[in-house]
Specification:
This protein is an alpha/beta fold. It contains 9 helices and 9 strands. The longest helix has 18 residues, at 52-69. The radius of gyration is 17 Å and the shape is globular.
Length: 251
């Protein structure tokens, strides 16, 4: 499996706070069957403001330590960029936030209460700038929990969505789990990731989430969500739609 959303870098946001925690999380990912992970620290003005240089230094240090300790986890880099902080006049500046190595896909987050009115416009401009935006954990947004159909216009524009493992496992509550299932069954979500913020209670198994997805949609769909599409993100290829035949399955 490949985890495209993980707060593993030490000391740059609310994820791993030091190298020890980062390495513990790396070992947990590997033990769970994850072969590659994208470090995606928050980029959120006024709250998480680590510079590109600080993030790169933390990334290089962790990658070197993984190699030194023989932990077989491929580490790539991106940012979880707050939509409210995206300047549509300076789209080129997002290059440092895009997911490596291809640099095509950009993970973005919105308010967990209600998406901003300009969300569709911002994502459209991001796409015009040459990036493919991925909305992080929309199933946790209260507005989408109340009315999942609010996301449909974005889905029709082929805006991608990533669901959190914890949501599929019910750790973010009943509404988040139900909304995650709705997104999957309607074909609005293409990726599942851990969104891990550290070891222990801050980590939820991507493998267990894949098993839940398989119970809802079938084994092929679960593989696309956690293996095939994440690999496409790293390589800059088009992601696959979730197999239509699997939608609406009971379980």
């Amino acid at each position: 499996m490949i985890d495209i959303h993980c707060h593993i870098l030490p000391g740059v946001d609310d994820g791993a706070q030091d190298m020890e925690q980062a390495l513990e999380l790396a070992r947990a990912l590997v033990a769970d069957g994850t072969s590659a992970a994208v470090a995606t620290p928050h980029a959120f003005k006024g709250l998480y403001e680590a510079t590109d240089e600080e993030v790169r230094a933390a990334y290089d240090a962790l990658r070197d330590e993984l190699a030194r300790q023989g932990i077989p986890l491929r580490l790539e880099l991106g940012r979880e960029k707050a939509v409210a902080d995206i300047d549509v006049a300076e789209i080129a500046q997002l290059r440092a936030c895009a997911i490596t190595p291809a640099g095509r896909y950009l993970l973005v987050e919105t308010s967990l209460v209600e998406p901003p009115p300009m969300l569709a416009e911002v994502l459209f401009r991001v796409a015009l700038g040459g990036f493919a935006p991925i909305v992080a954990h929309p199933e946790r947004v209260v507005a989408y929990q109340r009315r999942p159909s609010l996301f449909e216009p974005l889905a029709r524009q082929r805006i991608l969505a990533q669901l959190d493992a914890a949501s599929l496992l019910g750790r973010h509550g009943r509404l988040a789990r139900r909304t995650a299932r709705t997104f999957l069954q309607r074909g609005w979500a293409q990726l599942v990731a851990s969104d891990a913020h550290g070891p222990g209670r801050k980590y939820y198994s991507l493998r267990a989430a894949a098993e839940v997805a398989a119970s809802w949609l079938g084994e092929e769909a679960a593989r696309v969500l956690t293996e095939d599409n994440p690999a496409a993100v790293l390589e800059g290829r088009e992601v696959r739609e979730i197999p239509c035949a699997a939608r609406g399955r009971g379980g």
